Amino acid sequence: MSTTPAGNPINRNIERVSPELVEAAAKYQAAILADVAGRRGTVHGRVKPLSAKMKVAGPAITVEVRQGDNLAIHAALAIAKPGDVIVVDGKGDISCALLGEIMAAQAKASGIAGIIIDAAVRDAHELANGDYPIFSAGLNPCGPTKSVAGLVNSPISLGGTAVNPGDLVVGDADGVVVIPRQDVARIIDLAQKKLDGETARIAGIMKGDVRPAWVEKELRAVGMLAEGEAL
């Protein structure tokens, strides 16, 4: 099987996005960050929070597993540092849950900021009504095996999006966005400008300026309105 660049399936030494940048990015919706990142980096919509109130932001501890096996997730829980987010490539498989209340309790007690998993979880009632952020692709009462090697802190694909160890992941009610570690500072600057613009637009709507100014121009550009024609 392939391993991390250091030749070890468990890579303990990664470079993380800084806590200061995580704190700054956490102020923004995942949607704002995705927009200013070029509408890229969003995880497939099947990966959702168990409760709409759940939010998470932090550097990714990446995990790759075979469908239905969670052994590598236990390794990740053991080496993750406070503030990290466990991010699991479970291949979108929901035939077995890869974690439940016990593992979530361990993660919370360890200071891990949250868990994002492209696979199923269980103990949904307890987890959804708790305050610990869990994002998953579905639910299943069937438990996992713990017998197949995986990878911890190697590049993975999470719901069709590339994630490298230490990248910023932000999740909220809309879903999950991944920002490459080296781009985070730039994206945060753009996010504030985007938020300022959206805030001004909503204020304008409240004052009666309902129609956005750019609509007619774009309709003409694609041939839906003739030159000089107005809505």
Structural class of the helices, strands and pairings? alpha/beta
Number of strands: 10
CATH superfamily: Ribonuclease E inhibitor RraA/RraA-like
Name of the level-1 CATH class: Alpha Beta
Q: How many structural units, i.e. domains? A: 1
Helical amount: 25-40%
CATH topology: Glucose Oxidase, domain 1
Sheet with the most strands, sense and barrel status: 8 strands, mixed
Extract low-pLDDT stretches: 1-5
**Proportion of β residues?**
15-25%
**Annotated CATH architecture:** 3-Layer(bba) Sandwich
Q: Which value, in Å, is the CA radius of gyration?
A: 20 Å
For the termini, the CA-CA separation is: 60 Å
Q: What form results from the Cα inertia axes?
A: elongated
Helix and strand succession?
HHEEHEHEHEEEEEEHH
Number of helices: 7
What integer is the average pLDDT? 94
